[in-house]
């Protein structure tokens, strides 16, 4: 239970970073984000993504365009805003630090 | 074949089977519920709906079909994930998610469950509301009925107050399944349903109490009808069956008893009280009419029960009419005989016999339990009268059958200074000579042995004498200063003093008490010796 809780916390923090990273590579549709996350073995069900995307959009990190679809309703295609790009670069830096911290914690500073 | 519904989801028209529609609706309700307190709930839910619409459209194209079925919906739900899976990611989110607790309980409403009802579904509804099984509520309700019946009233009130769960949504609300449709603006179908439901809600609130009471009355009689024709019928039949068996047994007993009274086995029963009233000559008539008076109603009850239990007419009309006539004749005869017997209590006669006793300073009053035997009794019991010392001890029975034959003793102050014992025989009779004859037919004796007076507890009636309220009074007059020792056995026969009171004061567990005759009457010697205690007691 405790392990599960920690895992959830870790995944949650990383999920947001990963989503931003995926979107930074170009305009993308929500279900494609899901597909990428699935192949990265980080997800989770589709329903989880929508609240996250909405929150990021409302915080100004993302914007979207409506794109007509051949099947079904028009789709929201997400892109990063300038703020989003800025925050992502900050997160990249944080991730480097974290990866270093984890590496050091596991193997020792002098390895 | 299945009914198909056209839904508008995410601005897409989709044909969907009814069962699949129910599934999808429940799922969307769950989702809606989950994000209800989320800041961007409308947007999130719209996104999800759009995505679902897209997925469903894709599936239809892939499978080249027209209508969405349950499998498709389940596949979509699996892909989107259940709200429980959302929780795993969204918990501890900094977003303003206000609803901390699971929202289902708040949505529960108290309805009567018409699907699982026994009477009106009140118990089942309460069980849904407090999340327990209906049988426990029913058990509790049954217990309250046994405890003074307040449960009936409470049940009736709840019946009036609690609305019926009629629609699907009401049933879901009753069971605590999420059925909240507020804010589902996108879905025309569901919106319409929500509006309808709200209108219904308003009507329900506005329903005046008397209208609800009317509903209650209607339902109550409907239930009563169902009960009598259904469960009740079985219960009545079981009761009727019991009456048939029990009644038949009673009739048999009645025949046996009548035969017994007729003297087939033992005629000595007429020596006992209620039967000793009856004249010898009339016994047959009275017995027969009493038999008819009792037998026919029981027979009628049994026949009626047979009819109820087996749906069969056990007797035709002519015969039942004849039985009624016979019964009335029996009642008339019994009434006539009862009047005749009561007329024999009209006159009263007394017979007194006084004996002067030798003067002693102390008398002992005792009861002799040995039975007085008449000559006939001695012969009947094969007792040889020549064996002088043989005494048969009475079984000393008490109770209503013998108590009318008990003697009564009065103890009074002697005005003349002489000690005197008066035996007074009393009796009723139709005429005075008859009453006097009855009084004379009392056989009673007591024994004087020096200073001891030993009474028989009961008097006997000479053979052939019938009970006409015969009484024997024994009036003992003793001069002032005479000491009386009352044996415990005699207490209950002493009429004008409460003989036990002295024993209570003495409190020494003797089987006798000592009394002294004073100017004011008989006094307990203990009280005289301890006057201060006596006054305290008073």
From TrEMBL, chain A:
Using the record's annotation, list all stretches that form the Transcription regulator PadR N-terminal domain: 19-88
Q: Which Gene3D superfamilies match?
A: Winged helix-like DNA-binding domain superfamily/Winged helix DNA-binding domain
Look up the domain of life of the source: Bacteria
InterPro entries (alphabetical): Metal_resp_DNA-bind_regulator (IPR052509), Tscrpt_reg_PadR_N (IPR005149), WH-like_DNA-bd_sf (IPR036388), WH_DNA-bd_sf (IPR036390)
Which Pfam family, just one, is annotated for this protein? PadR
Protein name according to UniProt = PadR family transcriptional regulator
Q: Which organism is it from?
A: Pedobacter chinensis
From TrEMBL, chain B:
To which species is this protein native?
A: Pedobacter chinensis
- According to the entry, every stretch annotated as the Phage shock protein PspC N-terminal domain falls at 108-165
What is this protein's name? Answer: PspC domain-containing protein
A Pfam family matched by this chain, by name? Answer: PspC
Sorted keywords for this record are: Cell membrane, Membrane, Transmembrane, Transmembrane helix
Record domain PspC-related ToastRack: where: 394-525
Q: Which residues cross the membrane?
A: 136-162, 234-265, 285-306, 318-339
Q: Which domain of life is it from?
A: Bacteria
**What is the membrane topology here?**
Single-pass membrane protein
Q: What is the lineage of its organism?
A: Bacteria, Pseudomonadati, Bacteroidota, Sphingobacteriia, Sphingobacteriales
Q: Indicate where this protein is primarily found.
A: membrane
Which residue range or ranges hold the PspC-related transmembrane region domain?
216-345
> Subcellular localization, per the record?
Cell membrane
GO cellular component terms attached to this protein's record: plasma membrane
S-adenosyl-L-methionine found in the keyword field: no
